[in-house]
Amino acid sequence: MNRNRTIKREKGKTLKAAILFFISLGALIIFFSFTSFNNTQPNWVKGNLHTHTFWSDGDEFPESVVQWYKENGYDFLALTDHNVILEGERWKNFPEDHAALHRYIESYGDEWVELHSHEEEEGIKRVRLKTLEEFRTLYEDPGEFLIIMGNEISNPHAVHLLAWHQNKVIPAIQGSSEEREKMIRETVANLKAYRQETGRNVHPALAHPNFTWAITAEMMLNVPELRFFEVYNGHPLVNNEGDEHRAGTDRIWDIILANRLTSGKGELLYGLATDDAHNYHGGGAGPGKGWVMVRTGELSPEAILDAIDKGDFYASTGVVLRDIGFDGKKLMLKIEPQEGVEYTTEFIGTLKGANLDGTPTTDSEGNEIENTTLTYSNEIGEVLAVSNSLSPSYSFTGNELYIRARITSTAKHIDPNSGKVLGNQKVWVQPFIQKQK
Question: Which of 26, 227, 339, 344 sits in a 20 to 30 Å window from 315, CA-based?
């Protein structure tokens, strides 16, 4: 009798355990099935933060530009036309035989396209450009695809700063070419005022510093509140790599990090990769060359800007990361492998006590090159470790001012607009500093 009761109790326990197991398993299945941008589960989202359309000097209608990015696997897109946001009434003139105009009419229909014959010029059509609010519902899907209003704050002296999630145009600062540093400083101050006024977490990012060799590392150093810049810009005329005499953007990044962290003036500088897309019909500054991957639990302008503000993103021209981890002393990366592709990770940093003195940069004949970044010691931005692992890591020794990572793969970086090989695919991981006890 007692033995039978014991067996019944054990069976009951087993049955309860099985029920609890399957309930737990079901809960887990439900949880993972419904993981989305609507909860706090972190996700990597892909976006371009520098894009042009017919609203300024791009060569395509904004609707078609947005469609390209959505169809090519992006999660968000910022429209950043020069000195304008996509609001209000704007008309553009086109020849009647303009190819983009014909495609636009064929794609969207006569009821959508608003055009008139030009009153004074025969053969010219005037087309009203649609505002963001008019066309965003064609493409936006909650948790799937997002369009962000932006603005490239630009002046004729190649001082260009990006800002996002605005409800008004942030004006460009005017002045002479000798006042570029002042223009950067005042634009940064204007965005700070806008941030405080609106509560929107908007920070400016300096675009393409080496375009026409306009911006030097020293100008950026003298604006310690500047926290973002383009380490990669897809426009073919921006000199990302520098040249035989002038510093590239990678080098500029290290110069600023080393000097800021040694002096205590300024915060970490974070690097973006962007398209700066203008041309959508072959060659030039086309789409799909560089982007950011942002870790966020929600697909919204606020969540994306908050993550970028914290440096919780990486810049890429093709390499994909599964994860970035940092425990205060060790930086850990996980690379998403592609079949037949190898990866080289360089952990780049500057050691405490490095020589930070800069000297004038000269050409091959010894003549000083005006308005260019100074030449600094190779102690700045040293490659402190190299790995070919898919899970590379770096442990701080305590001697580093910072560590950032650059990963280069053997896969080719191909311009989807022209088919041209631009080099090898890369990733730039944001800088980290060792946390003190």
Answer: 339
